[in-house]
UniProtKB/TrEMBL annotation:
<dbReference type="InterPro" id="IPR010140">
    <property type="entry name" value="Histidinol_P_phosphatase_HisJ"/>
</dbReference>
<protein>
    <recommendedName>
        <fullName>Histidinol-phosphatase</fullName>
        <ecNumber>3.1.3.15</ecNumber>
    </recommendedName>
</protein>
<keyword id="KW-0368">Histidine biosynthesis</keyword>
<comment type="similarity">
    <text>Belongs to the PHP hydrolase family. HisK subfamily.</text>
</comment>
<feature type="domain" description="PHP">
    <location>
        <begin position="3"/>
        <end position="189"/>
    </location>
</feature>
<keyword id="KW-0028">Amino-acid biosynthesis</keyword>
<dbReference type="Pfam" id="PF02811">
    <property type="entry name" value="PHP"/>
</dbReference>
<dbReference type="InterPro" id="IPR004013">
    <property type="entry name" value="PHP_dom"/>
</dbReference>
<dbReference type="GO" id="GO:0004401">
    <property type="term" value="F:histidinol-phosphatase activity"/>
</dbReference>
<dbReference type="GO" id="GO:0005737">
    <property type="term" value="C:cytoplasm"/>
</dbReference>
<dbReference type="GO" id="GO:0000105">
    <property type="term" value="P:L-histidine biosynthetic process"/>
</dbReference>
<comment type="pathway">
    <text>Amino-acid biosynthesis; L-histidine biosynthesis; L-histidine from 5-phospho-alpha-D-ribose 1-diphosphate: step 8/9.</text>
</comment>
<keyword id="KW-0378">Hydrolase</keyword>
<dbReference type="InterPro" id="IPR016195">
    <property type="entry name" value="Pol/histidinol_Pase-like"/>
</dbReference>
Amino acid sequence: MYPMEDCIKDAISLGIEEICFTDHVDYGIKDDWDDLRNNKATKKYFNVDYDKYFSDLETLREKYKNQITIKNGLEFGIQKYNIEKYNKLFKKYPLDFIILSVHQIDDKEFWNHSYQDGKIEKEYYEDYFNEIYYLVQNYSNYCVLGHLDMMKRYDEKDGYNPFVENKEIITKILKRVIADGKGIELNTSSIKYKLDDLMPSRDILKLYLELGGEVLTIGSDSHCKRDLKNSHIEELKQELRDIGFTKFCTFEKMKPTFHEL
């Protein structure tokens, strides 16, 4: 657990000028705190307590307004069947930034391999990218796609190349993202997880740039002080420059602001 105020203090001490919290919302595998309060909870885990979360953010924003900019964000772990729940949540709270991610399919999570069990890499990668493609066609209240190709955190690494084997649908995903004025996230945790490539991969980043993609954020995926301190953001900014990017984005009220890399 990493209390928000501790994170803010740590960010200030590290010279960070702006921070956006993106706590997870994963309907299907988690209940809301209102479900617990109304004795309707059926899950073991819960989404962020929205009212408290946004109230605390407003208090902290005022307290540290002369030291750091603090933005309101959430990470939506959407599945095909529960899109409307996220539309309702989006309309209820003031948000600067939303990451659209896929963390599970059919309520089966990737991190514990419950979705991958019994499938070969070809099957679960195709399922993963097809799920994302469906979502970008049917859900629009987001800013960037989070850690596209994050399935590689959990794959068997037996020589299967997810970019080469799924380039057609990845291209469709990126074209739709660009057409809708959305973006993608470079997630720096690829270093923490000791992956052999960036996340998304250099190939995906190059393809996004070639297709005309401009909206790009850099997310530290920080869950503790160590993550924040060792976020490798400057290192990965250079990776982006090497690929050909010249700008990255932050968001306010769901609109991108471009900054020089």
